[in-house]
Each structure stands twice: as structure tokens, then as C-alpha cells.
Design goal:
This protein is mainly alpha-helical and 411 residues long. The chain contains 18 helices and no strands. The longest helix is centred in the N-terminal third of the chain and has 36 residues, at 84-119. The protein starts with 11 loop residues before the first helix and ends in a 10-residue tail after the last helix. It is a multi-pass membrane protein. Its main location: membrane.
């Protein structure tokens, strides 16, 4: 009697952890600050809209991917469906965004990890800490999606636990009237809303990981869909927890002072300190930031790795993955060592390019795939909504760049 061994599908949980870990990083702490002008009601609406639109764009890209062999990524799909010109533009956009983010993570994290290692008695230099951090992440990414998902799960669970321990008490003392306060005389909240939209888009960036998930789940559409939905929903829940905790304890009038002090995590924590009843706050925040950085660093570089592997077509042998890992990690590492602050000048454009490859291109790919693979091609509502969302983000970015939109907390 002949028996057939069926390989068991990995749990949806692992994929969801990759998505949530990639999406929710240390940048989460800046959300209440950038949203302070629009305030809580608009923040809820914009986060909900951005979550829905970014989930739709991810599902559109996944649907197109399922028409191709496992491992086919943005470059293969764009070249086949939209042509070589679009593939070049989209490829440069992906390399720019993911490369800049990798460069930023290495540059910004090196001093933090250097200090932590020195506290453990390990005399690492700044450059040594950057190299050690990059090497550790590169090894995990080289091992594949399974290794990334396991480490990501540990980091995400640690982040959630620390977040609850650090800030859970804030939920018990929120001021509902403050959350839903009306604008003071002569002022409106809505003019600040459009400028918040690109930050919301950037807060749900995970599209570089979809190619890896398609291979990981062996093109099982149900599992991939559930992983995307669960991962992005968890991210949305964490964001809502955070903005409710902060805006419910700090009035809107307190945020110009926070912005005036630099608008960073330290300024926000200083304003919240009287509401927090946590011993060793600085230590726990340091631990939280370590887990947040590692998780997002893993997610971003895994997406960059998959794109380069698809673009060059080197295969998935250990040697081929080693060469891909070198191209993924060495250029950002070298740039960080020789130009540690150069990413600041370029990262402002990352949102514009992210709109192109994570919103516009997935919608266009889905439209062309409908024409090629469907007997009844049509422009679906999902495609239209995603394109409208992308257009609004480009408009918001352009108006902000031209200093047309109002900026809260600045004279």
C-alpha cells in the first residue's frame, strides 16, 4: 500500500509575527507626536483607513504572486506585467527605501548596542557594535524565513509584554473628555490630518515580506491571507493602545512643549513620567527599544534580501543565499561606517518611494493580472481604493515638502 507524506503547513502565527514585527518598531513612539495636531478622533480614522488600504494593497500583491512560481517577487511580477521601465523604477524605489531603512537601523542602533555591550563588560567600539549587530541579523536572514519568524516571534512577544508593563497603567487613568475634546476657538483639527497620512502609511509597511511568506506557506492563499490580516490587526491594536494611553493622559496643549524639546522618545517620556509608576523605567525602555529595533531590522532586511534574490535569480542554495546576504548587508554597513549621518538627508523621500512600490504598483499589478489571467477582467473596488489612497499620500507628501500644510507646535 503506497503512502504519501504531506508536509504540514507552518502555523499562521509565525507569518503574523513577521508582519507585526516588521511593522511595529521604535517609530511607534513618534505617532502621538506627529498626530497631536489632528488629535485623537482624526488619528483613529487615519490609522483605520491606512490599515485597510495597506492590507488591501498587500492582499492584491499576494493575489498576483500566486499566478507565479514561489520566490517570484516584485521585480519578476513588475517586469512581466508592467514592462521593463516600470520594473526599473519600482526596483530602484524598493532598493532606496529598504536600503535607506537598513542603513538607518545600523547607524542609529550602533551607539545603543555599543553602550549595552560595554555595560556587560564587552569593550566594543561603535564600529564594532555595528558590525556585530549586522552580522547577527545577517546570519538569521541567511538561514531563511523560518529562522526570521522564530526570532521575530520572541521579539514581538517581548515588546508586547514590556509595552503592557511600562504603559498599561496609563489606560486606567485616561481622560475621555481630553481624548474627544473640541478644538479651541479659532482653530480646527482637520487641517493637520492630511499631513499625518504619510506617517500612517509608513506605519504599515510590510510588503517586502510577502514574497518570503508565499514561499514559506507554499503558495497556500488561505494561510498567507490569515497571516497578513492577523499581523496587521495586531499592529493596529498596538498603535491604538499607544495613542490612547498617551493622548488620554496628556492634553493636546502639552504636545507643543514636547515638540519644542525635540519631539523624541525622551521628551515624551519626560512628560508622561508623573503618570508612570514603573521602577527602572530607563532600563525597561532600553530593553524595549532593543527588541523593537531587532524585530524591524529583521523584517526590513528579509524583504530586501528577497527582492535582491528575485532580481538576480541566483537560486536558494547556501552559497547563493550567502552572496545575496552580502549584497543586502555590506553596502548599508559600509555606508554607516563611513557616512553615519547621511541617511537623514535621504530618509525624508522614503515615504514618497514607499507609496510607489507598496501602494501604487500592487494596484497596477492587480489590474494587469486581471486582464491577463481572468476571463472577465475588471477594475475592482479594492484596486480603486488603493490607488486613491496612494494619490492622497503623494498629494500630502508634496504639500508638506512645499510647506503648504500647517505644522503643529511650531511658531
Amino acid at each position: 500500500m503506497e503512502t504519501t507524506l504531506v508536509r504540514r503547513q507552518p502555523s499562521v502565527w509565525w507569518g503574523a509575527m513577521i508582519i507585526c514585527g516588521t511593522v511595529v518598531g521604535a517609530g511607534m513612539f513618534t505617532l502621538p507626536i506627529v498626530m497631536a495636531g489632528a488629535w485623537f478622533g482624526w488619528a483613529l480614522l487615519l490609522l483605520g483607513i491606512s490599515w485597510g488600504a495597506m492590507l488591501l494593497s498587500g492582499l492584491l500583491f499576494m493575489g498576483v504572486s500566486l499566478h507565479y512560481p514561489a520566490g517570484a517577487g516584485f521585480d519578476t511580477l513588475t517586469k512581466d506585467l508592467l514592462g521593463r521601465g516600470w520594473a526599473v523604477i519600482n526596483g530602484l524605489s524598493i532598493l532606496f527605501v529598504l536600503g535607506i531603512l537598513t542603513y538607518a537601523y545600523i547607524s542609529a542602533s550602533g551607539p545603543v548596542y555599543q553602550q549595552s555591550l560595554q555595560q556587560l563588560g564587552l569593550p566594543f567600539s561603535n564600529a564594532g557594535a555595528k558590525i556585530a549587530l549586522t552580522l547577527c541579523v545577517a546570519i538569521v536572514v541567511w538561514l531563511g524565513t523560518k529562522g526570521v519568524s522564530r526570532l521575530m516571534t520572541f521579539c514581538v512577544l517581548a515588546k508586547i509584554l514590556l509595552l503592557i508593563v511600562l504603559f498599561g497603567g496609563l489606560l486606567t487613568q485616561i481622560s475621555v473628555p481630553s481624548l474627544f475634546s473640541v478644538a479651541p476657538p479659532g482653530e480646527r483639527y482637520w487641517p493637520y490630518a492630511l499631513g499625518v497620512l504619510p506617517f500612517c502609511l509608513a506605519s504599515f509597511g510590510y510588503h517586502g515580506n510577502i514574497t518570503g511568506l508565499v514561499s514559506y506557506y507554499e503558495r497556500n492563499q488561505q494561510h498567507i491571507t490569515r497571516a497578513l490580516v492577523l499581523g496587521t490587526l495586531m499592529s493596529l491594536a498596538l498603535y491604538l493602545f499607544w495613542i490612547t494611553s498617551t493622548m488620554g493622559n496628556l492634553p493636546r496643549a502639552a504636545f507643543p512643549g514636547i515638540i519644542g524639546q525635540g519631539g523624541d522618545i525622551a521628551a515624551l517620556l519626560a512628560a508622561l513620567r508623573e503618570h508612570l509608576h514603573v521602577s527602572a523605567l530607563a532600563l525597561m525602555m532600553s530593553v524595549f527599544s532593543h527588541f523593537a529595533v531587532i524585530a524591524s531590522f529583521l523584517g526590513v532586511t528579509a524583504g530586501l534580501f528577497d527582492f535582491i534574490a528575485d532580481r538576480l535569480g541566483w537560486g536558494s542554495s547556501p552559497l547563493a543565499r550567502f552572496k545575496t546576504a552580502c549584497l543586502t548587508f555590506l553596502p548599508p554597513l559600509l555606508a554607516s561606517l563611513f557616512w553615519p549621518h547621511g541617511f537623514v538627508a535621504a530618509i525624508g523621500f522614503a515615504g514618497l518611494f514607499a507609496t510607489l512600490w507598496a501602494v501604487i504598483v500592487p494596484a497596477l499589478l492587480a489590474w494587469r493580472a486581471q486582464q491577463r489571467f481572468s476571463d472577465h477582467p475588471r477594475v475592482t473596488l479594492a484596486i480603486v481604493l488603493v490607488l486613491i489612497f496612494g494619490g492622497l499620500n503623494i498629494l500630502a507628501w508634496g504639500l508638506s515638502w512645499l510647506n503648504v500644510l500647517p505644522t503643529f507646535g511650531t511658531a
